[in-house]
Q: What sequence folds into this?
């Protein structure tokens, strides 16, 4: 299915190269060569994917990512970075980037990442009505996947895109224990080897927002030596 893609990249040769290859896949591609132009296009257009360079003139990629994630409509973001610093990649993921590619990269690798993002998008779009589309209510917590809205005791909880995805994934599988690597694979899309602490930081932030006492959580539980699981109300009733 053809998609509309925005590439925000100040290396014009690279941007045009990606435009050609994405065009060969029948995608419609817009280009922006600095941060301010890129943000303006991202906010004025409706895109199925933003390919976003981290280092940009005018406005950097992390700030653009943050602003895109503050918008109500969800747009996948694939971040490009020439930095080797682990911190920059982790910050990009934690701000809501769906994936990242470190320069230098092969065009073939980037095309594979783009296809993987669109496969996940299409799977969500084609999911039949049913349990996964219905709001989930667990104790005082309510999760509405269609509106991407979370309330606790009737009050809205402000979550980032990945915080919502992680919480919803947990809530769909109550009582199931997930390792950090499994959560990276299933929520972020594939295994980010060595970045399991990204899961830790997201869970810590989630607990700070939804738990009355984050040190003694009621919803997202630690299974020591293994990973995490979401509370299963059925187990509580049997106890």
A:
């Amino acid at each position: 299915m053809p998609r509309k893609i925005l590439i925000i990249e100040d290396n014009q040769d690279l941007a045009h190269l990606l435009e050609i290859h994405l065009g060969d896949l029948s995608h419609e591609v817009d280009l922006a060569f600095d941060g301010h132009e890129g943000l303006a296009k991202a906010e004025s257009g409706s895109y199925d994917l933003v390919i976003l360079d981290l280092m940009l003139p005018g406005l950097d990629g992390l700030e653009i990512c943050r602003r895109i994630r503050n918008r109500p409509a969800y747009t996948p973001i694939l971040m490009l970075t020439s930095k080797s610093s682990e911190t920059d990649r982790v910050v990009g993921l934690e701000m809501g980037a769906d994936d990242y590619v470190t320069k230098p990269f092969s065009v073939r690798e980037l095309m594979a990442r783009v296809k993987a993002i669109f496969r996940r998008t299409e799977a969500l779009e084609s999911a039949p009505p049913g349990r996964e589309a219905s709001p989930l209510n667990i104790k005082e917590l309510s999760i509405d996947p269609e509106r991407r809205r979370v309330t606790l005791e009737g009050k809205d909880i402000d979550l980032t895109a990945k915080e919502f995805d992680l919480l919803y994934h947990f809530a769909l599988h109550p009582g199931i224990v997930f390792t950090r690597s499994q959560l990276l694979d299933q929520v972020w899309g594939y295994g980010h080897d060595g970045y399991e602490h990204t899961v830790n930081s997201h869970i810590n932030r989630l607990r700070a927002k939804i738990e009355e006492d984050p040190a003694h959580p009621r919803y997202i539980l630690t299974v020591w030596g293994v990973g995490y699981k979401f509370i299963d109300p059925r187990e509580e009733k049997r106890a």
About this structure: The chain is about 45% helix and 20% strand. The first strand starts at residue 4 and ends at 8.
